[in-house]
Amino acid sequence: MARRRAARLPEHVSLHRIAGTELRVVSDIESGLGPFIEVEEEVVEKYAASPRWQQKSVTLFVLKDLEPLLRQLSEGAATRRSGPSVGRPVGPDLSALPPGGLAVLGHRPIVNVYDLEKPSSCHIFVNQEAMEKEGYWGDREAVKALLAHEHAHPLSECETTRSARMLKAGLTTESTRALFASEEEGPGWQDKVGRLLALIVDKLCLYAPREVFANDATIESSFSASLLHLDRKNVLGAAEGLRSRGALRQMLQGEAEKGSLTPAGADLLLAIADMKGYLDLAIETASFYRQGKLTEAEELEGMLFAQVMPHLDPLVAEAYPKLRDAYRGLPHDASPEALVRLEEALIGILAEILNEKGLRLECRLSVSPE
Known about the structure:
Elements: E1 12-18, E2 21-27, H1 34-48, E3 57-63, H2 67-82, H3 102-105, E4 110-113, E5 121-127, H4 128-134, H5 140-155, H6 159-165, E6 167-175, H7 186-206, H8 208-220, H9 224-258, H10 263-278, H11 281-290, H12 294-307, H13 314-328, H14 336-356, E7 359-367
Parallel strand pairs: 2-3, 3-5
Antiparallel strand pairs: 1-2, 4-5, 6-7
Helix pairs in contact: 1-5, 5-8, 5-9, 7-10, 7-14, 8-11, 9-10, 9-12, 11-12, 11-13, 13-14
């Protein structure tokens, strides 16, 4: 019988009161928390001045990694599956998690877990391992932007975000040309493509309104300078990440030479990687435009068009302004039915790229109760 992993004991527990909000800090990190707590206090104090702020209790978990949260959510999900079929489900609603669900949650630098029915409290989880990997740990302005963005999520809830939670996407794909040359290897590539496209549609379409509106609230609450700093950092990181794109291209070309892919299949997979890795930057620039921060938006786009977009697949680069403009026009009061039409337009932008690469994408959007 497998031995259950022992729970990590906290190295730090403290209680702080900021403008009527009680902040609890729990951490399994031995040192270096002081500046982090100071930034969180600054963020909470600024938000607490807003009439929209409802949170009386905030728990900030600063952890080496998110394994404790993943374990808790997994156990909660199991309880939901095995629990009674009537009444209110026990445990978290995994459909409300960020794109990729539990599979990618452990790689996120920071996440806010809150209950829509209990707006008076929230739980912020900070992943030191992921923060260090992204270059955020120790960068005060980046930390401020990340905390401000996560606290903005409850503030930015609206009819459109409620509608977004009710949408489910069913994806099917069909090759219109030879992509996977080997019958033995082909199904594996097809499954990989399906998983990647599901994640991309979730991230750039279904979840995007929540990210756009959270950015809006972050900027409206006077954190635009910190958010711009974070976005500059992310664009520079995207430019540096282009080196790994070259390695990916070589790997895919090698697979084509071995016969598991055709050259067209390798080209498709590289375009999908570009879509996954870079198109979400349109969410960031769209919010600056939405909030009338033209100087900031144009600065970010200047960096993008100079350092990133010329190195991507041209079809992916052409999709960026289409997505950005679609995000700019997102309304706050979209019903589920109205949001379906908006989401179909977003998915259509992605489908255009895939169609040119030899893959027909069809998406069936359905509306289900939360």
